[in-house]
Design a protein that fits this description.
The chain contains 4 helices and no strands. By secondary structure, it is an all-alpha fold. The protein has 2 domains: 1-48, no CATH class; 55-97. Helix 3 runs antiparallel to helix 4 (81-96). 5% of the residues are buried. Pfam families: AzlD (PF05437). It comes from Halobacillus seohaensis. Keywords: Membrane, Transmembrane, Transmembrane helix. InterPro entries: Brnchd-chn_aa_trnsp_AzlD.
Length: 97
């Protein structure tokens, strides 16, 4: 009985994750929906990164904000992603040293 519950929960979890991958290629969305869908990865990444920036050093959140601005500047200047990450980490290290 428990194995059937595990299999059922697996199917219920997997289907909603894989179904959109197969449907999106076959459906032609209007231009405004395509633009909206293309913005989702950036919004999700920002939602994941922003709380971490503010919690680098909770008693001094400006350190994380400055490090985030350093990373944004390096990315805007088209540096490699490794340089951007190292620049953000180095700026936090230098401000807390």
């Amino acid at each position: 009985m428990i194995i059937w519950m595990i299999i059922g929960m697996s199917i219920v979890t997997v289907v909603p994750r894989f179904l959109p991958a197969f449907i999106v290629d076959k459906v032609n969305f209007p231009k405004w929906i395509d633009r909206w869908l293309n913005a989702i990865p950036y919004a999700a990444l920002g939602a994941l990164i922003f709380p971490g920036i503010l919690n680098v050093k909770p008693e001094a959140p400006q350190i994380g904000v400055i490090a985030g601005l350093v990373a944004i500047l390096l990315a805007w200047l088209n540096f490699n992603i490794i340089i951007v990450v190292i620049g953000g980490i180095a700026s936090v290290f230098l401000m807390t040293f």
